[in-house]
Amino acid sequence: MAEAHQAVGFQFTVRPDGVDLKLSQDVIKNIYLSGVTAWKKKAIQFKNGVLAGVYPASPFSWLIVVIAMMSSLYTHVDPSLGMMDAIKENLPYRSCVSVQTRAVLSAILFATGLWLFLIYLLRYTLKALLSYHGWIFESHGKMTTSTKMWLSLVKMFSGRRPLLYSFQASLPRLPVPSVDDTIQRYLESVRPLLDTKQYNHMEILANEFKDSKAAQLQRYLVLKSWWATNYVSDWWEEYIYLRGRAPIMVNSNFYIMDLLYVTPTHRQAARAGNVVHAMLQYRRKLERGEHAPVLRALGTVPMCSTQMERMFNTTRIPGIETDIVQHLTDRKHLVVYHKGRFFQVWLYTGGRHLLPSELEMQFQRILNDTSEPQQGELKLAALTAGSRRSDLYESFIHIPWARTRIKYFSQGVNKTNSLDGYAKSLLHGKCYDRWFDKSFTLISYPNGKMGVNAEHSWADAPIVGHMWEYVLATDCFHLGYTEEGHCKGDVNKGLPHPSRLQWQIPKECQQIIETSYLSAKRIADDVDFHGCLFTEFGKGLIKKCRTSPDAFIQLALQLAQFRDQSVFCLTYESSMTRMFRDGRTETVRSCTAEAVAFVRAMEDAGATTAQRLALFRKASEKHQNMYRLAMTGSGIDRHLFCLYIVSKYLGVDSPFLKKVLSEPWKLSTSQTPQQQLNLVDINKFPKYVGAGGGFGPVSRVTSFHSSVSICCPDPGSQSDSYRFGQHIRKAMIDIQALFKPENDKKTAEHVKIVPVENGKKHI
């Protein structure tokens, strides 16, 4: 579109006496400004790259070291212990350079080497400090003297004003747990789920593996941990996500909702204009590395920022055997899908981003466009929703998206309610109005609501949640709207209109699109969703009970699951491992023996409140300890997963690893966390909280729950999302009632609660 626009201002006529050339001043000005912006961007990226590259030192510190070494030349004190003299004598072209010049050069070279040595010393000291995780196992609010000293040292070696990637080189590597520890914890995790015969069989398999094949596989894994920055993440991305041939819609992609109680404007184009502009601001800071690093643990310990690099300009590209994640360095347009048409919208003019008001005008032009979709265009995106394999599946012959893309799209394209319905729309929509392969798709509704559908292979939910929090805060508290609900600012009506993408889709390809759509629709229709908004109490009240809100929720889920299904099941809770370089997630197996004992006591009419409360505290402490182990690299499942991958590479058969990797997770509690950045004071603006997000169901047997959302794969079957939601609500109330006598003694103060992520609340 920009090329076509500039061509209007560039005209020439060939005459017998020469060429008459005409140039538009506006076009020349835009070209000049675009060039200035591009070079300015490169300069800032270079500067910030240098700052992050030498962190925790600074370029100025190099000058100080050089001056100190130069001063030694005049004081006749040699701090280099003769090294500067050795450098001076071994400089090339000695005969062409004076003695004084060689002395200065030797001082600069020694100073530079000393400076680099000190940088690496600081980094490895900080890495050693960050490798200590004893603090995480201490009781909340009871910090030991050693931990206080450790925290002070971390702050001292962390430098000042770090950028987003400043800590990357100082983050420790993810350690490989011992096989004995992992197997012991695994057997402990499955004990409450197996009868005596099943457990004895599993114990035999585990011991056989430990005594025969484990040592060989572990050696290769330890070798990889020394060589790679993270021994898990690359295999996790490839084998769990990119090699999966099932549809990624519902099965992999996740969604994040808008603000729960507030819609800043009901004008669809205006809301989209502000949100897209806020995203452009976020992307600019991301590309330059100007975001502050994410500091979560104790407000000081840094988290890995690697996943954020691929947030924008990234698409999952289908392949025959495995997909790839393609990240482009810079893109200057976005594609809008509306009523079956694809439009390209240019995001820059005169070397700057389009203003919110200009974006609103462009989006309104698309909304006003009455043109019809081209042949095959309406459901084209269904190709990204369908199967990625070529086989018979549920009565449909699936032509994989990879083969279709290669055959029909390898040349590219040319330019010319309620929470229930809301969440289902974000998760899968109509199965053809989301490009599920994109790193994320921004979804705009006619009533002004927004949402995000995100592809999962490139990053985990907290990464997208980080961006979304920034966008919502910028939209509501920095950009704002006029009294009529429009974006603020003047409108440049001279901007070229968004252009339609042109497609040539033959009949054969249209049939493949329809087949992919029908299979995706069956998946979407099979998802039963219930948005359970819990307002009885929240995180503030749970903390007053002196227990972890996360443990409280997980034990409530175990109680709800047992009441709903009358059995216990293997339960997945995700924890992060981003305190390590390139860390992603680890699994916490929430269904512990202690949790089972507590649930049975809750269902035992003869158990007293004191007995139930004691069992709750024991189960809560167990869960918190498992979560801490997972965060610090001592989890179970990623280690066993990597051992299994090594066994497949070596052709080693392990019945134990096969059994472990084939166990179904019938209850998954993955989450899309919010309030990571604290950009909005929830106490001051209690209505500006997000509605959370979630994932699709992981099992065709029982329920899946995420945040305040509950999602089941088969409406009307033994898994019913509404019924399960009511069990969760009652379980939380029943558990909180155990603490009521204690709370009544402490305070009678009225507490105002508002809901936030994961069913937790803020005061």
From TrEMBL:
Pfam families: Carn_acyltransf, CPT_N. Residues 1-47 form the Carnitine O-palmitoyltransferase N-terminal domain. Gene3D superfamilies: 6.10.250.1760, Chloramphenicol acetyltransferase-like domain, Choline/Carnitine o-acyltransferase, domain 2. Pathway: Lipid metabolism; fatty acid beta-oxidation. It is an enzyme of class 2 (transferase). It is found in: Mitochondrion outer membrane. Residues 174-699 form the Choline/carnitine acyltransferase domain. Its EC number is 2.3.1.21. It catalyses: (R)-carnitine + hexadecanoyl-CoA = O-hexadecanoyl-(R)-carnitine + CoA. GO terms for biological process: carnitine metabolic process; fatty acid beta-oxidation; long-chain fatty acid transport. The active site is at 456 (proton acceptor). It is a multi-pass membrane protein. Keywords: Acyltransferase, Fatty acid metabolism, Lipid metabolism, Membrane, Mitochondrion, Mitochondrion outer membrane, Transferase, Transmembrane, Transmembrane helix, Transport. The chain crosses the membrane at residues 50-74, 103-122. GO terms for molecular function: carnitine O-palmitoyltransferase activity. GO terms for cellular component: mitochondrial outer membrane. Belongs to the carnitine/choline acetyltransferase family. Catalyzes the transfer of the acyl group of long-chain fatty acid-CoA conjugates onto carnitine, an essential step for the mitochondrial uptake of long-chain fatty acids and their subsequent beta-oxidation in the mitochondrion. This is Carnitine O-palmitoyltransferase 1, muscle isoform. The gene is cpt1b.
